[in-house]
Design a protein that fits this description.
CATH topology of the largest domain: TIM Barrel
Helix content: 10-25%
CATH class of the largest domain: Alpha Beta
Strand order of the largest sheet: 2-3-4-7-10-11-12-13
Number of domains: 2
């Protein structure tokens, strides 16, 4: 008699197929401010370097701190209640100046009280981010350098304006001419990051901060510290945007090369490791480096991520949105582009070091944007997600809170040694869309250069196998979308129909009635929409299956594997269009067989994501049925299957090594109509 393993509630298999900067002091950075990268022409000033295999270390300890949402709660404010927003932690930014106003004189009491206030508000962990420069949007009359202590800016002689100051005067004047701005046309100051006075004192401050926090009675509540390297604490030196200033170009002209910047960033990482890690290199408090932007060349982003991961330092990446371009370039054969995308570092190192993301209301301002952005963050296996200036009027609603409740169950979960197992695994059907409307960009921006391809998935992988009839076509209810995939000259997907579709608009998706852009200027979808981008079978070309492979680690097998039996819940969100049938074929202990349908219900966010991890109490079928009979209601539906005798040992479609598939043909093998799937 084989051992029977139950994975019903706490370990349900959820198949989701998709159709469906200092916030107080500074405006947040855009996902990528390099115009060349956004236009698809490649990065500026990229030195020729040969690709190197990323350095890494195996993650041998659990992600430090409490994984999950971290809400930006400023000083002198009442923190939002953690439980109300399914948040694990709270964070804020601290300037060097406010924590060390005089040399060796520290304002730890202010910091400690803030930490205590967050703990009292129910947060499990807190995050502390440091910065020393904030850029040209600084409110008048202050300048960006003024977040570095005045005694540092005055140099060793203590007199501001003399030759020993760690300050440079930009070749572009102060352009602020608003109320209270009296320096219009005057000097704009930049930090001299290589100046010994600046570097030595900043190192001493980091070491002092580490000494204080690692010995704090609140240490167990301190989840992470973000390195303060450059502008807004991020891995760039200053502004470098047309229409603002080209300050990084000026710093480069003064001798700060890309290699110099990488060396400086590595030094700051090392100071933080010295401050917050023990002698064997393990974190006493986890350090992350803010590595979304770059200094002059995207190769600096790659080099800093490689170094950080090799030192057990996590990567923090700003700008989480539902989609974008220039994000994943590890398939590029150009050594100057290879693995320089903003999200490449997450793909490369999410099994090595903690990965953090950040986003704002202005990036995810509708339910649909939040819905898809959270799937994207989890697809990248994020441990932490910072929500800066997000919750509030117009955004705090039942739908967004449901999405937050769902996502909070997966951050930091996985199957690496020391990680907590996730409650379920899932796949959301999607593909990159061009153009890709963004909540903060007017018009329909072109997104046709190195995007993220394919589904957003969490340990459940859809296999695209033409020889097995497993090609599914990406489609959308948005008539403005030109293509799915991308057709730039560097594209790697134009020969892959499961990515690339030149006619993606589908009237069947539109008939579900959920396509509602917020306004003509920005065109962002409002409510959560499975038809935002979904997948359909392609029976016309002999492709009838959605094929899936579940992570082997999800199933805790006895030895030998064949002796294990698994009870599994599978939910599938599908479009009820037409009057045809479809089946779910799975790997049972007796071989491939159709799964019994337990219930069919109208789709809601909570049902489709199976947020509660339970079987539905409505829509239950009264007779044993092994196929889904559609009724042409034009609605999105959720079919729930209960499997009592699962094997899930890669025995379905032998050449495919799959665990189950959705068969769009009828119960008797009829080619009776295509299926549209959103989330499995």
């Amino acid at each position: 008699m084989g051992k029977k393993v139950y994975l019903l509630l706490s370990l349900s298999l959820l198949l989701l197929i998709a159709a469906a900067a200092p916030a107080v002091l500074a405006a947040p950075s855009l996902p990528d401010t390099n115009a060349g990268v956004q236009a698809g022409s490649g990065p500026e000033a990229t030195p020729a370097v040969a690709p190197q295999e990323p350095e890494s270390v195996n993650r041998t300890i659990a992600p430090p701190g409490a994984p999950g949402f971290y809400i930006g709660n400023g000083r002198n404010t009442t923190p939002l209640p953690a439980a109300d927003y399914f948040a694990a932690g709270s964070f804020t930014f601290w300037s060097w100046r406010e924590l060390e106003p005089g040399r060796g004189h520290y304002n730890w009491g202010f910091l400690d009280q803030w930490i205590q206030d967050q703990v009292d508000a129910g947060y499990q962990g807190v995050g502390i981010a440091v910065y020393t420069y904030i850029g040209r949007y600084t409110p008048c009359p202050a300048q960006g350098v003024d977040v570095t202590p005045a005694w540092v800016l005055a140099g060793q002689d203590g007199v501001r304006g003399t030759s020993d100051d760690p300050v440079l005067v930009s070749d572009q004047p102060d352009g602020r001419d608003g109320p209270g701005c009296t320096n219009f046309g005057g000097d704009w100051y930049l930090l001299d990051y290589e100046h010994p006075w600046y570097r030595n004192n900043y190192r001493d401050f980091i070491l002092a901060l580490g000494e204080h926090l690692t010995n704090s009675p609140l240490r167990d509540h301190i989840a992470w510290v973000a390195t303060g390297i450059g502008k807004d604490g991020e891995n760039r030196a200053a502004d470098n945007r047309n229409g603002v200033a080209r300050d990084e170009d000026f710093l480069n002209s003064q001798g700060l090369t890309v290699d110099d910047w990488i060396t400086y960033a590595r030094d700051v990482i090392d100071w933080n490791r010295q401050a917050f890690y023990d002698g064997s290199g393990f974190p006493r408090i986890q350090v992350v480096t803010q590595n979304a932007p770059f200094y002059l060349s995207t190769t600096s982003r790659r080099a800093i991520a490689q170094y950080a991961a090799s030192k057990r330092v996590g990567v923090s990446i700003n700008g989480m949105t539902s989609d974008f371009q220039g994000t994943e370039l590890c398939d590029s054969t150009d050594p100057n582009l290879w693995c320089t995308g903003m999200y490449d570092q997450a793909r490369l190192y999410n099994d090595t070091v903690p990965v953090m993301f950040e986003s704002y209301r202005y990036m995810m301002g509708t339910v649909n944007e939040f819905y898809w952005s959270m799937a994207r963050a989890l697809d990248l296996k994020g441990d932490y997600l910072r929500l800066s200036d997000f919750w509030g009027d117009g955004i705090t609603n039942e739908e967004n809170l449901t999405i937050a409740e769902w996502a909070s169950q997966y951050f930091g979960k996985g199957f690496e040694f020391g990680e907590e197992r996730p409650p379920s695994i899932w796949s959301r059907m999607r593909e990159h869309r061009d153009p890709c409307p963004l909540y903060y960009v007017s018009g329909l921006p072109s997104c046709n250069w190195w995007p993220t391809n394919g589904n957003y998935e969490f340990y459940l992988t859809q296999l695209h196998l033409p020889e097995q009839g497993g090609v599914t076509i990406p489609v959308t209810d948005d008539p403005r979308i030109r293509i799915t995939g991308w057709d730039h000259s560097q594209s790697t997907v134009v020969d892959k129909p499961w990515h690339y579709n030149t006619n993606p608009y589908d009237a069947n998706l539109a008939a579900a009635g959920l396509f509602h852009p917020v306004n003509p200027d920005y065109g962002i979808q409002i409510e959560a929409d499975p038809g935002f981008v979904a997948r359909r079978s392609d029976q016309a070309n002999g492709q009838s299956k959605f094929i899936f492979d579940a992570a082997d680690a999800y199933f805790a097998r006895s030895q030998p594997p064949a002796e294990s039996t698994f009870k599994v819940i599978i939910t599938v969100t599908y479009l009820d269009v037409g009057n045809d049938q479809w089946l779910l074929i799975y790997d049972s202990v007796s071989g491939p067989k159709p799964a019994q349908v337990y219930a069919i219900n109208d789709w809601t966010i909570r049902r489709g994501l199976n947020v509660d991890g339970t079987l539905p109490t409505t829509g239950k079928l009264t007779e044993p049925t092994f196929y889904v009979q559609k009724t042409d209601s034009k609605k999105w539906k959720v079919a729930t299957f209960v499997i009592e005798d699962g094997n899930f040992n890669n025995m379905v479609l032998n050449e495919a090594n799959a665990d189950f598939y959705i068969e769009s043909r009828g119960a008797n093998g009829e080619w009776d109509g295509d299926e549209y799937i959103h989330h499995v």
